[in-house]
Design goal:
Helix content is about 50%, strand content about 20%. It has about 250 residues and is α/β, with parallel strands linked by helices. Strand 4, helix 7 and strand 5 form a beta-alpha-beta unit.
Length: about 250
């Protein structure tokens, strides 16, 4: 896909809309389920990064800056990039309001303007599922990371597969939707291996569809039902999204 054609992809046009940028955080993290997702994301990210204080961290596809601000509050030296200037404007305003320092830059995940191994840790959340060329993006994340890459994806063995297929059907029919892709664990591991990285650990979030949890809107129901399914072993097979921390192989 050429650069010109890539810019027509929904992942660029949708998030370039200032109205989308202004409402992004509320739509994703609003309400009891959104708050639960945000809290889990922060906890998982902190566990995967390990020591945050003093680390140089790059957040790719930062959006409204949630992960970048969290890491900066923990004492990291954070650089955050996004292709959308509208999203960056929201992120910069939030950084000022929170009184934290983050270097926000406009950039494309397919071609990061940084040196090889420039950052201790590279973070990329809710991005690969939407990018025109996910393999190229993942290779770029690995290229600029000295040690760790943390990213997530919807699992092909989860309910996300059905939603993904439905959205692609809508797109083929001419409708406007974010027709994201899903991934198998094997596919991800193979792509990481080509860049000299290997999976160190993973975290799977929900068994039941996020849409269902949001529709019910009960934090208690979500926590009870998901704990029950996890105890039954379903989370290990059907859990999604999957958050991965990958480390550079010693021989790389």
């Amino acid at each position: 896909m050429t650069k010109a054609r890539s810019r027509d992809h929904y992942s660029y046009s949708t998030y370039a809309d200032p109205a989308m940028a202004r409402t992004f955080e509320d739509r994703r993290f609003g309400g009891p389920i959104g708050e639960l997702v945000a809290g889990t994301q922060a906890r998982v990210l902190a566990n995967m990064v390990g020591r945050i204080q003093g680390r140089s961290i790059l957040d790719v596809g930062t959006g409204a800056g949630r992960a970048a601000l969290f890491l900066a509050r923990g004492g990291a030296q954070v650089t955050a990039v996004d292709a959308s200037e509208a999203m960056l404007a929201v992120a910069r305003r939030r950084a000022v309001e929170d009184g934290v320092k983050v270097r926000f830059l406009r950039g494309d995940a397919h071609a990061l303007d940084f040196r090889d191994d420039e950052f201790d840790v590279v973070v990329c959340l809710r991005v690969l599922m939407h990018t025109p060329d996910w393999r190229r993006c993942l290779a770029e994340l690995c290229r600029v990371a000295e040690r760790l890459v943390i990213f997530d994806y919807p699992s092909a063995t989860s309910a996300a597969l059905l939603q993904s297929l439905a959205r692609r059907a809508i797109q083929v029919a001419g409708g406007r939707t974010e027709a994201y892709r899903v991934f198998t664990d094997r596919r991800i591991r193979r792509a990481l291996g080509r860049s000299g990285f290997r999976v160190r650990s993973i975290h799977r979030q929900f068994v039941m569809p996020m849409l269902l949890h949001r529709a019910i809107g009960s934090r208690r129901f979500t926590m009870f039902s998901e704990d029950l399914l996890a105890r039954a072993g379903a989370l290990r097979v059907f859990g999604s999204p999957v958050t991965v921390v990958a480390e550079r192989c010693a021989s790389s």
